[in-house]
Structure formats: structure tokens, C-alpha cells
């Protein structure tokens, strides 16, 4: 088996980041939800950017959303990514509110559009790492 050559989350992330990646590894998307104001947030952080509460609960979200914006990458950051170029990177607003960025797969480049409905999918890339991507809903 060929070693995975693309970027992976580091193994020494703070605990509040590890919870997110553990949910992805379980093929579920869990995000922090503020116990003070109910705002979902991504990227995981220690305090709520809305009300500054330090209290949160991890909740499973739908993984559904729509493309807020996107770009087509023609030259990847490393050789491992260049094999797939050109490829789309999408900025998705989840139905629960927060925005996430990842690849979009399973669609022709010319069919991508702002407002397009998408869903999270999971790719087990190593024995210890799963990444998330988006696909048409």
C-alpha cells in the first residue's frame, strides 16, 4: 500500500480539536454548540465567538449545506495534490450555520455553482485518519 502523501491533521491537537476528528473518524460530523447562546461553531475553539461562554456541548449535525463560494485549484500545494488538478475547494454553509472548507467530489467542474446543495462524505485515508469532503446532496 502506498503511504498517504496529502496533509493530515496533526496528532498533537488540543483536546477540543481531537473531539471533532474523532467524530469524523466515526463517520459522524459533530460540532461544538455553545451552551450559552446555542451557536454552532467551527473551527473548534475554547470560547464562543458570539457570547464568550466557555461552556459547550458536542452535537452531531446533519452534514448538509450549500456552497457559499468555491475555487478551482489548478496547481496543488504539493505533488500529491497535482495529480488531481484541477479540483474544486468549496466553502460550505452548513444548515446548522457554521461554514466549513474542503474538497468537492463527484461532480463535473462546470456543474458547480454557488447555492448548490452538498453533503459531507468521509474518506478513510489511513488506519488512524479519516478526512471529510463534500459531494452533491
What key attributes describe this structure?
five-stranded antiparallel sheet, 2 domains, about 140 residues, three-stranded antiparallel sheet, OB fold (Dihydrolipoamide Acetyltransferase, E2P), mainly beta, 8 strands, about 10% helix
Write structural notes for this entry.
- With 137 residues, this protein is mainly beta.
- It folds into 2 domains: 13-61, no CATH class; 62-137, OB fold (Dihydrolipoamide Acetyltransferase, E2P).
- The protein has helices at 15-25, 79-82, and strands spanning 30-34, 40-41, 56-60, 64-73, 87-94, 99-103, 117-124, 130-136.
- A 5-stranded antiparallel sheet has the order 6-5-4-7-8. Strands 2-1-3 form a 3-stranded antiparallel sheet, covered by helices on one side.
- The longest helix is centred in the first third of the chain and has 11 residues, at 15-25.
- The two termini are 31 Å apart.
Overall mean pLDDT:
95
Radius of gyration from CA coordinates: 16 Å
Order of helices and strands: HEEEEHEEEE
Please count the helical segments: 2
> What name does CATH use for the topology of the largest domain?
OB fold (Dihydrolipoamide Acetyltransferase, E2P)
Oligomeric nature of the chains: single chain
Task: Report how far the terminal alpha carbons are from each other.
Answer: 31 Å
β content, as a range?
Answer: 35-45%
Structural class: mainly beta
What strand line-up does the widest sheet have?
Answer: 6-5-4-7-8
Q: What fraction, in percent, of the residue positions are helical?
A: 10-25%
Q: According to CATH, what is the class of the largest domain? A: Mainly Beta
Total strand count, please? 8
Uncertain runs are none
Largest sheet, in brief, is: 5 strands, antiparallel
Tell me the count of domains. Answer: 2
Amino acid at each position: 500500500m502506498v503511504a498517504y502523501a496529502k496533509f493530515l491533521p496533526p496528532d498533537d491537537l488540543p483536546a477540543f480539536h481531537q473531539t471533532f476528528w474523532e467524530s469524523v473518524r466515526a463517520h459522524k460530523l459533530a460540532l461544538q454548540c455553545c451552551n450559552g447562546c446555542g451557536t454552532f461553531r467551527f473551527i473548534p475553539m475554547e470560547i464562543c465567538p458570539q457570547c464568550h461562554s466557555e461552556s459547550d456541548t458536542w452535537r452531531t449535525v446533519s452534514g448538509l449545506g450549500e456552497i457559499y463560494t468555491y475555487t478551482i485549484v489548478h496547481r496543488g500545494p504539493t505533488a500529491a495534490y497535482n495529480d488531481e488538478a484541477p479540483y474544486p475547494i468549496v466553502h460550505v454553509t452548513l444548515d446548522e450555520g457554521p461554514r466549513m472548507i474542503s474538497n468537492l467530489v463527484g461532480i463535473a467542474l462546470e456543474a458547480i455553482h454557488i447555492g448548490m446543495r452538498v453533503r459531507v462524505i468521509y474518506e478513510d485515508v489511513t488506519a488512524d485518519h479519516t478526512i471529510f469532503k463534500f459531494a452533491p446532496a
